[in-house]
Amino acid sequence: MYQVATGSLSPGEIAAPLRGILGRQKNTQVLLGEAVDIDPKSRRIVLRDGTTFDYDSLIVATGSVNSYYGNDAWEQWAPSLKTLEEALRVRGKILYAFEAAERVLEPKERRAWLTFVIVGAGTTGLELAGALAEISRETLRHDFRSIRPQEALIVLIEGSPRVLPPYPEDLSAKADHLLTILGIQVRKGVRVVDIDRDGVTFVAGSERERLEARTVLWAGGVKASDFGKRLASRTEADTDKADRIRVKPDLTIPDFPDIYVVGDLTLASRADGRQMPGVAQVAMQGGAYVAKAIVRRMNGSKEPTAFRYFDKGDMAVIGRAAAVANIFGLHVSGFPAWLVWLFVHLMYIVEFQSRVLVFIQWGFQ
Ligand SMILES: Cc1cc2nc3c(=O)[nH]c(=O)nc-3n(C[C@H](O)[C@H](O)[C@H](O)COP(=O)(O)OP(=O)(O)OC[C@H]3O[C@@H](n4cnc5c(N)ncnc54)[C@H](O)[C@@H]3O)c2cc1C
Fold this sequence. Notes:
This protein has helices spanning 2-5, 11-14, 18-21, 84-103, 107-113, 123-139, 169-181, 226-235, 280-298, 335-348, 352-364, and strands spanning 35-39, 44-47, 52-54, 58-60, 64-66, 115-119, 153-157, 185-187, 190-196, 199-204, 207-212, 215-218, 222-224, 245-246, 252-253, 256-261, 266-267, 314-317, 323-327, 330-334. By secondary structure, the protein is of the alpha/beta class. The two termini are 18 Å apart.
């Protein structure tokens, strides 16, 4: 997504239509529609156009949406990367900023166009900051006449005292160092209090600061999708502050053994008591587990087994040849981590043709 947002990949290279992916799976039908309500007692789903579907088993995987922590008005000034459409909007915004800076003569105004603020130093924020540094320092460096794109100021703002808060401390420190090498300014322990058309206001300690920036991008977090909230209220399920639904070890909602919840919408614990993270691996493994659980139940099994998440590790990429990774407790950083990241992500791109194209783009351009 962040590579689409910074113009190094096109949408077709990273996304494929569901209908095509499932084309050969004859017991699957894909229908376009938005689920807006559910009646769990009569086992019925309601779509926005009023159509209803009855189910025997229901798998809800409606994921998450951006969370602006109650400040939804910020969204218009600080788009995020949750969907391909948003990634394209971000791309337009970034490239327009360089174009506007090229035309503006007034130094303060030009500086504001060349200032890019990313809110949130989790994986997405780091990836975005790294890619922005790359296009401004490398890709665009010879393309303008009045401005020097490599002088773009990239500021990464994080509320916690360190970047990549869920990662081990040594990897956070390595990531911080890699960001600094790329010339990215990292502001930690800083709380954003306002975002508007012209920039961002934040509080650092007891100081209130203002940064004039025409491009502010949001990587600040997610919350449950609207349908997830509706499902929780209809089933009276327990939720956390991000509205994720607490499920039983077999990923069903308590008292509703026919409703499974998987992926980002789920609030579930691992065997060691830690919460499952909102990453693709959890969603994919949860999906596969639930499919098997339903088949087992149809075959007459009464005792559900618990979902066990197999954690293959965490990775964050910072620019083209640098990353940090925690693989089965092994902490890797720099180029080796980037190579691991490259191959792991390529493996999971759905279409073989895209895999080849993306490999060429990432590896050689
Ligand atoms: C920019 C970005 C980068 C990321 N990078 C990584 C990464 O490198 N590695 C990693 O492991 N994870 C990454 N993640 C997280 C990962 O994408 C999620 O954990 C994963 O997609 C969750 O899968 P899901 O099926 O629960 O939800 P999603 O993938 O969000 O899918 C939910 C789907 O449900 C649809 N939907 C929602 N509401 C309705 C409704 N009411 N009716 C019908 N359809 C509906 C949505 O349109 C969407 O297609 C990243 C996330 C983002 C935003």
